[in-house]
Design brief:
This is MFS transporter. This protein has 16 helices and no strands. It is mainly alpha-helical and about 425 residues long. The longest helix has about 40 residues, at about 1-45.
Length: about 425
């Protein structure tokens, strides 16, 4: 009876978490859309716009290790609710400023920094809490629903943001975001983060380790897990080389091929739809038997797609064919992103000890947040001095080779020993002479 009640509660968590994530992500993206336009209208300066991006990225990079430490040492529910309340207060503060005086860059940057900090603590802690919220058999479903809410927000927020920005004032944007944030707090407060948790209880009187010691211990734990270490290293490499896509894709379509902004929007929508449809598929299908193997070949496919982006620069195509080609490639890119990320994240959730989840996920967060901007800066420079098709093809080859080397057959067998066993069982038995 108790087990049935726990499973019912886990089902409730699945949908509560999804709705909460959808509301907070959608609100954040609509806000980001509006505030970006507002800064550009207010100042006309790309530097001011970039400064707001730095205010968003830098706190996440610097504070992720501390968020991981907190997620492993303190109440995860308290951290998530506290972070969401702090975000609501920051939005409310900016709303009051917008109603009483004109919004200043200082007020916007301060709010962006606070929202970045709260998002870091909430995101790392939620990632660490997944196995405590739902039963093991539905972790893939939970990760897919999480990705679905992000994809919905990616598809809908630019359209909603664009419509609202032309019709309502900035205070209305902030009120929408504040309402979404408050509803998210209410939903999260009804969740039991210890339902399936396996964290060790802190023994009273036991010597307490310092924050630095704890973070070092998390890193040491990661270094002792060969498969986990390789998965995170692959994730970081993919994040870095993804800069070739992020910079090159816009540069090629807008600057080189002179694609109409509306048609460029169609290609971006195809990417989000690909992610969404694949997330829906993963949320309704049974869990993958060999997740690391699936992710490996999905990254290889991503590498091929990365090189394919250069095709219209090498082969003469009509405008219509070029547009259709990029819609198809970007849709496939969206599919491959989910096929890569979901199995790896599910495997991490099941592999990482519950007492170390926060610190391990924070290492991934710190590395990703540091490498993605670095990749964009480096590739931005390279696209100015080298041929775009050369950069894409070399990045494609690098990605494929690195993944094939790191996730070589011996590593795959270590991650999935049942693969070797399956082959042995399938091999014909020697016949007596």
């Amino acid at each position: 009876m108790e087990e049935v009640l726990k499973l019912k509660k886990a089902t409730y968590h699945l949908w509560t978490f999804t709705i909460s994530k959808l509301l907070s992500t959608f609100g954040a993206q609509v806000y980001a859309f509006a505030i970006s336009f507002y800064i550009l209208q207010l100042t006309g300066s790309a530097t001011s716009f970039a400064a707001n991006l730095i205010c968003s990225i830098l706190p996440r990079t610097l504070l992720a290790p501390f968020a991981g430490y907190a997620a492993d040492k303190y109440s995860r529910k308290a951290i998530i609710i506290g972070a969401q309340i702090a975000a609501s207060l920051a939005i409310g503060g900016l709303l009051i400023v917008s109603l009483t005086t004109e919004l200043s860059l200082f007020a916007i940057y301060t709010t962006t920094v606070i929202l970045s900090i709260t998002s870091t603590f909430s995101g790392v802690t939620f990632s660490s809490s997944m196995t405590g919220l739902v039963d093991e058999s539905r972790i893939q479903k939970a990760m897919s629903l999480n990705q679905m809410s992000i994809s919905f927000a990616a598809i809908g927020s630019p359209a909603v943001g664009g419509i609202l920005y032309g019709t309502v004032s900035m205070p209305v944007f902030l009120q929408i975001y504040l309402a979404a944030s408050i509803i998210a707090v209410i939903l999260e407060s009804t969740m039991n983060f210890k339902l399936f948790a396996t964290r060790k209880e802190v023994v009273e009187g036991a010597p307490k380790e310092s924050m630095l010691q704890s973070i070092k211990e998390g890193f040491s734990y990661l270094m002792k897990q060969p498969i986990l270490k390789i998965m995170i290293f692959i994730s970081l490499i993919v994040n870095f080389l993804f800069g070739a896509f992020q910079v090159g894709y816009s540069f090629i379509l807008i600057e080189k091929l002179k694609l109409d902004p509306v048609h460029f929007g169609y290609t971006e929508m195809a990417f989000a739809i690909g992610m969404l449809l694949m997330s829906i598929y993963f949320s309704s299908t049974k869990e993958l038997k060999y997740p690391f193997l699936v992710s490996k070949w999905s990254i290889v496919a991503t590498g091929i797609l990365l090189g394919a982006i250069a095709t219209p620069l090498l082969v003469n195509m009509s405008y219509f064919v070029t547009t259709l080609f990029y819609i198809i490639v970007l849709f496939a890119f969206g599919v491959s992103m989910i096929v890569t990320n979901t199995p790896i994240m599910v495997m991490m959730q099941k592999t990482i000890d519950d007492d170390y989840k926060g610190r391990v996920f924070s290492i991934l967060e710190t590395g990703s947040m540091a490498l993605m901007p670095l990749g964009m800066v480096i590739f931005g420079f390279l696209y100015d001095v080298l041929a775009a098709e050369l950069i894409l093809i070399v990045s494609s080859i690098l990605l494929i080779v690195i993944v094939l080397v790191l996730a070589r057959p011996s590593v795959i067998k270590l991650a999935h020993p049942e693969l070797s066993k399956g082959r042995e069982d399938a091999s014909p038995e020697p016949q007596p002479e």
